[in-house]
Design a protein that fits this description.
The protein is an alpha+beta fold. The chain contains 9 helices and 18 strands. Helix content is 27%, strand content 31%. Bound molecules: adenosine-5'-triphosphate.
């Protein structure tokens, strides 16, 4: 069932010429986890703020369960009920400890249940033993975990997250994303996350919407976007893309001379094929990554094989 609908939403900030959002259409199903990705300034946060009821669109409407949401300008308090928003920049109370900061968001429980829920949330975000610490005694990543626990404390119907994992080290981030996914599923929470990090989007979300210049230019499952990007901008977001112009493709005799993308793992060392020179190499654990040059064109290849001086293209990703 459709939970959130964004219909033809446009918005230009005061004194700005260019719209921050330009006719956005988006729907998110009940319990779906959607990631918004795109280069800095493309409008991700603005869209999240409009969905969360912190900004009004200039044009267009938003709906929850088919009901139009109330305009921000008509409300005393910004933000829609049942929507929690984890913002960039944290909003922790400096004189409350971790337990206090999280606990004040747990409402509607009898004291015993409340204490249990507090312990559960502290445990969930990996802050055991830190419940008596004040925000200034925590690292940036630990503060971020408090903010996540606060947002989950109220069991929201919709969770909006703006770069929620940005201050965390990779192992903590991966663990928290896995826990978060289980929790969102269990509570059937509909979630939208803004992120710059594609791996975060891949790990957490069911669907990814790619934004550029205030528009959603493609949305789909991670696999759809990976296998069938509609342009180089989308292909590039996964990081491992050799983007070939039509001129490059003609030079290397690839894809009938049409512009395309070749994923790093879709190039293979071979005994014959395109002659290349290795420019540099990096150890990546299970594979190595080589920067190579073929007829003046720089490419990258990730492989566990040793270089041979020639590469073969295993698969070409065409733009749909
Ligand atoms: N309060 C504001 N007043 C004027 N312009 C704004 C304001 N907030 C954002 N903008 C502009 O609107 C556009 C979209 O901004 P937004 O913050 O939504 O982008 P974003 O994709 O979330 O960026 P980032 O990834 O850097 O956080 C940008 O050009 C930005 O400069």
């Amino acid at each position: 069932m459709r939970h959130i609908l964004v219909e033809e939403v446009s918005m230009t900030y005061e004194n700005e010429k260019k719209p921050a959002l330009d006719c956005i259409n988006l729907d998110v199903a009940q319990g779906e986890i959607l990631s918004l990705v795109g280069e800095s300034g493309c409008g991700k946060t603005t869209l999240l703020k409009i969905i969360g009821g912190f900004e009004d669109p200039e044009l267009g409407k938003t709906y929850f369960h088919g009901k139009e949401t109330e305009a921000v300008k008509l409300k005393l308090i910004r933000g829609h009920a049942n929507v929690r928003y984890i913002q960039q920049g944290l909003d922790l109370k400096p004189f409350y400890d971790v337990a206090g900061n999280i606990g004040e968001h747990i409402r509607g429980y009898v004291p015993e249940e409340r204490a249990k829920r507090l312990t559960y949330l502290i445990d969930l975000v990996g802050l055991n033993g830190m419940d008596k610490k004040l925000p200034r005694e925590l690292s940036g990543g630990q503060q971020q975990r408090v903010a996540i626990a606060q947002a989950l404390a109220k069991e929201p119907e919709i969770l909006l997250m703006d770069e929620p994992f940005s201050n965390l080290d990779t192992p903590t981030k991966i663990q928290l994303i896995a826990d978060m996914k289980v929790m969102l599923r269990k509570a059937n929470i509909t979630a939208i996350m803004v992120t710059h990090w594609m791996e975060e989007a891949l790990r957490l979300s069911d669907r990814i919407a790619v934004m550029r210049d205030g528009k959603i230019i493609q949305s789909g499952s991670a696999e759809e976007l990976y296998r069938q990007p509609n342009c180089p901008y989308v292909a590039r977001f996964f990081g491992n893309a050799n983007l070939l112009s039509a001129q490059d493709a003609q030079k290397l005799d690839i894809n009938d001379g049409q512009a395309c993308c070749i994923r790093f793992e879709d190039l293979q060392w071979s005994q014959e094929g395109i002659p290349v020179e290795v420019v540099s190499s990096q150890f990546l654990g299970p594979t190595d990554q080589y920067e190579i040059e073929a007829d003046g064109i720089r490419l990258r290849i990730t492989t566990d094989q040793a270089p041979t001086g020639f590469v073969k293209v295993k698969h070409v990703t065409e733009y749909v």
